[in-house]
Design goal:
The protein is of the alpha+beta class. Helix content is 16%, strand content 37%.
Length: 147
C-alpha cells in the first residue's frame, strides 16, 4: 500500500476550493431572465443573459424559440426589433432579430448578441414596419420583467 502524502492531499483540496469559488463567481456575474408569456405569440419562449465583459460593458444575449415569422402576425410588419430600457428609462433600439438563415430559421429559433455601455433594466421585442425605427411601436411581442 502506497503512503499518502499530506502535502499532495492539501494541494488537491486547495485546487478544488479555488475551482469551486471560480465557478460561483462566474455564475454570480451573469443574470438570466426569461421572457414573459406573450399574448401575441403564446408559443414563443426565450431568455436574456446579461454579463459584464473586461471593458465593463454589458453583454446582452438573447435566445428565442417558437417565435412565429413576423409576416404571419397579420399586422403589416416586416421585422422584429429588440429594445432595451436603460437605467435612466431611455428606450434604445439595440438590433434586428435574425437567425443564421437571415430571418427566423425554419425551426423558429433565433439568437442575438450585442453589448452596451449602459446598464439594461428590461428587454423587449416589437414587430415593426422598419428595422431602423428610433422609438418602439405599440405592439410588444415579448418582454422581460425589470431586473
Amino acid at each position: 500500500m502506497k503512503p499518502v502524502n499530506k502535502l499532495t492531499v492539501s494541494r488537491k483540496i486547495i485546487v478544488s476550493i479555488i475551482a469551486l469559488l471560480s465557478i460561483i463567481l462566474v455564475s454570480s456575474c451573469s443574470k438570466k431572465v426569461n421572457f414573459q408569456t406573450s399574448s401575441v405569440v403564446p408559443a414563443a419562449r426565450g431568455n436574456v443573459k446579461i454579463n459584464r465583459d473586461g471593458n465593463k460593458n454589458y453583454v446582452i444575449k438573447l435566445h428565442l424559440s417558437d417565435l412565429a415569422e413576423v409576416e404571419r402576425l397579420q399586422m403589416d410588419k416586416e421585422s422584429y426589433v429588440i429594445w432595451m430600457v436603460t437605467d435612466n428609462e431611455e428606450k434604445k433600439n439595440i438590433g434586428l432579430l435574425n437567425s443564421s438563415s437571415g430571418r427566423l430559421s425554419n425551426k423558429l429559433k433565433a439568437d442575438f448578441e450585442t453589448s452596451s455601455s449602459t446598464r439594461p433594466i428590461q428587454i423587449f421585442i416589437t414587430a415593426e414596419e422598419d428595422a431602423s425605427v428610433q422609438y418602439p411601436g405599440s405592439r410588444v411581442i415579448l418582454t422581460t420583467h425589470r431586473f
